[in-house]
Amino acid sequence: MVTTSRAERVSAAFVKITNTLVADYDVLDLLHALVEASVDLLDAAAAGLLLADPQGELQVLASTSERSQLVEILQLQAGSGPCVECYRTGTPVVVEDIASLTGQWDEFRAAALSQGFRSVHAVPMRVQGRTIGAMGLFGERSGALTPEDVAIGQALADVATIGILQERTIRESAVVNEQLQRALNSRVLIEQAKGVIAYTAGVNMEEAFGRLRSFARANNQNLHDTAARVINRTLTL
């Protein structure tokens, strides 16, 4: 049955995210499910997610588009921006009109406007007083998200964060670090694989990622292993 009401779509999104929380789940797949569900449900044109590595340095781990990924990367390079500030403070950061920013986050402002974004709402990834990252919800119009959208976005982020920091990983910090480091290493492989697919198939980077992820899911493989096969040329997509 096709879901039509917003309540049904919200429920389906939470089910989709929680369904990823199984043994040996793929952290990157969980994070991509989070940003995709956020854009689908909320008044946002794109989303990007920053997660702290074992050394506390933020890295881009998921995005719904190449342009949102670019803005997040430029925030990291500048060391400032709404998502970076959100991670540092553990509280949401709202910019209703990016164009109105003057003397603050200049590099972020220029990057966001160049990609067609006019507003951003940064949501912290936090649980039990610990902040491990931030998700940026980018809008193509100025203005803030509605209180309902804010609540849904934060709830989605909270569920995903709990998934990353399950009880078994909270008890053993080395496991948390191992998972995060593996996700970071996987991200490098995935970016390389996207480039290979884009070049060989003559498609853009978003289509390349779509092919990679679809194959992984259809064949019950994780993104890391599928990307590795593409890079070593044992798989052509």
From TrEMBL:
GO terms for molecular function: kinase activity; RNA binding. The lineage of its organism: Bacteria, Bacillati, Actinomycetota, Actinomycetes, Micrococcales. InterPro entries: ANTAR, CheY-like_superfamily, GAF, GAF-like_dom_sf, GAF_ANTAR, WH-like_DNA-bd_sf. It holds the Pfam family GAF_2. Residues 170-231 form the ANTAR domain. This is GAF domain-containing protein. Keywords: Kinase, Transcription, Transcription regulation, Transferase.
